[in-house]
Each structure stands twice: as C-alpha cells, then as structure tokens.
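Suppose you are handed a protein chain with no further information: no name, no annotation, nothing but its sequence. What can you learn? This example shows the usual starting point.
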Amino acid sequence: MYSIKQVSELLAIPPVTIRAWENRYKIVKPTRTEGGHRLYSKKDLETLKWLKRQMDENNMKISDAVRLYKEPADPPTIPTPKSNSYDDLLNQLYEGLVNLDSQEANRITDLAFSLYDYEEVFHHILVKVLYKIGDDWEKGIISVAQEHFSSEIIINRCTQFFRVLPVNRRLPKVMAFCPEGENHHIGLMIFSLFLRKKGHEVIYLGPNTPFDGLTELIEMKDISVVAISLTHPGPLEELEIWIENNLQTTPSLKFILGGTCIKESNRLDSKSVSYSIGMDWEEWYKSFMLT
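A reasonable first move is to predict its three-dimensional structure. Written in structure tokens, the prediction is:
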C-alpha cells in the first residue's frame, strides 16, 4: 500500500490533483488508516499511471482519459509510439544531459517513468545512459562537467525511490556500500532498489565508504545482510579480511558481493557469502535471502 505522498513522488502527480481526480471521477478508491490517511493499492497506482500517460502522450484532458478508461471492461491498451522506445528515450535523455538542460532531462525521465515500470527505466535507460556518458567522457567527447552533471541528475532521480517504496519491518535489514576508493555505485544503487521493492529496509551508504565503524553500525542497526560492489581490485584484500572478521564475530551475517572485479576474485569459502555475477536476481533472492 502507498501513501498519497508516495504515489505523488512515484508518478510526479501533485497530491491535490490525485485527490481531485478521486473525488470528481471516482477513478481510484483508496482505503483509509485509523487516522484517516489515504492508502493506495498497486491497482490504484497503475490506474493513475495510465491516466497520466494518456494526458502526456495523447494530449488528453483528464475527463476524456477517464471516459476512455471506463468504456471497456479493462483499460484499453494504446500502442506506445516508436519515438518512445527505450533507445529513443535514452538518446533524448542523453542530449538533454550533455546540453546541461536539467528541465529537459527531467521531462524525458518523467516521460519514461510514465510509460514503463521504474525497474525497466533503471535498467534500459538510466543505467545505459550513464555508461554512454562515462564512455564518451573517457574518449574526450564530453567534458568532466557534463559527466558530473549527468551523474548527479540520474543518481538524484534514483534515490527518490528509497523514500517512497514501502518497508516491511519483518524482513532482514540490509546495509549497502562501496569500499573506500570505489566511486562507481550505480549498479549497487539499482540492486538496493531491487531489495527495497521487495520490502527490505536498506541503509545505503554509497561510494567510497571506509571500513572504520561499519562493524559497530551493523550491530547498532541490527543488520542481517551486507551488499557490497567493487569494480577495481584495490580494496579487495582488505574487504575479504573485513568480511571474515565479521563472520567470526557474527556468523549469522550474510554478504552479497557484486561488481566487475568480483569476476576475477578468489571466492571466499563460506555459505554466508554470495556472488551476484551472472546470476538472476530473482533466483538469487529466493535461494539466498529467503533461506
């Protein structure tokens, strides 16, 4: 279930607009908490997303979109124009980013979220455009300023989902970080959002995190799972020592390691350590997180 604030942030629809559509058109029927606050279901979320898409993509008035929604037994499926394929949205977003046009970049990102599930947007558009930005910076095609601007815009859009996805307090808590010296964390962020969608509380520490104080933080916050990403081997030896020390003091801890350099690393011989390279996240989740 989602609060009206969460729905507003996920769909970029102001709360006052959501309430107006609900009251005037009876298009969604949220339940109420004991305190009278609205709670929206997944179906409500999809309905509002569909309506917003008709307004953004087909220039419909809300009244016409509601009428179209209610005509058949199920909402009609309107073909997505070719200009809004993953690749086209990616290219449009790239142009907005390298032109340092935050308004256009956010408009394209909003459009992508209105057309596709947010996980599709992350994997097929945002992550890929970041890789393209990084490659073009290394080749000297764009400047460091353009690269930094692009990264900040996209990372800020990703982090908003940490605030709005609901948490199931009964599930194990997760801590996620990149060790000191590791600054590439978009993959770790996407994986953390995968766990947040499952309902796990994720304490996201991000890139370049020193080991000092992390063991105490694990104990203080009752962390059960630690997710770590690494793309270069510099911190690997220290990381493995740190993991082994933590498993000696807290054998129930679980660690999930990802990142490109993990492919070539020596695997720790422990059932408490999982390596994500080449694994399906859903299958990994069932076999590692639910056991």
